[in-house]
Amino acid sequence: MTYLLPKLPYSYSALEPYIDRRTMKIHHTKHHQAYVDNLNKALEGLKYKPSSAEEILKNLNRIPLDVRQAVINNGGGHVNHTFFWNIMSPKKSTPSGNLLEMLNKKFGSVEKFRESFTQKAMGLFGSGWAFLVVTKSGQISLKRHSFQNSPLMQGNFPILGIDLWEHAYYLKYQNRKADYIKAWWNVINWPEVEKNFKGALK
């Protein structure tokens, strides 16, 4: 199948003032588009016909070694960004339901979860992501991943994540990664995170 750049579920300016319009447009139309284009190129001529990009990352042993790293880089970039756009929203929300219960159980409170997640994100060296995942055993855990590596590659299911590549924030925040992370908490789509959490437990 041929992968396409997904449309954003909101306008490029919808997340302002936390994430600016120019960053969103370049991030989506240039960076994400490049991952899609390069993924399609890497998969040209392969006999393996996955049903989704997520399936590819779960079955990398079916990808020939000569293109596997390109598929990891660009398939991961496509999957991670598609996920990232959907776990953000201009509508204010808060954790609720089973997700809220799990966060309180694991971290003690939502505020302590935010502190732990922020610490995990700030601890990433170089480009990559910080994720809240549901592990294969059904537990929630914080993970750091370099570059565009996806939690799916390790059998984990991402339910929340932040893009920590400089292109995600540098136009507005320059080297102030901590300010970007602090602002990002204002645009999390918690109903979508709850949906991801329920889906991971099925």
From TrEMBL:
Q: Where is the Manganese/iron superoxide dismutase N-terminal domain?
A: 2-89
What is catalyzed by this enzyme?
A: 2 superoxide + 2 H(+) = H2O2 + O2
SUPFAM superfamilies membership: Fe,Mn superoxide dismutase (SOD), C-terminal domain, Fe,Mn superoxide dismutase (SOD), N-terminal domain
Which keywords label this protein?
Metal-binding, Oxidoreductase
The protein's matches in Gene3D superfamilies, at most eight in alphabetical order, are given as: Fe,Mn superoxide dismutase (SOD) domain, Iron/manganese superoxide dismutase, C-terminal domain
Q: Where does Mn(2+) bind?
A: 27, 81, 163, 167
- GO molecular function ontology, one term from the record: metal ion binding
Q: What protein name does the entry list? A: Superoxide dismutase
Pfam families under this entry? Sod_Fe_C (PF02777), Sod_Fe_N (PF00081)
PROSITE patterns hit by this protein: SOD_MN
Q: What class of enzyme is it?
A: oxidoreductase
Family of the protein in this entry:
Belongs to the iron/manganese superoxide dismutase family.
* E.C. number: 1.15.1.1
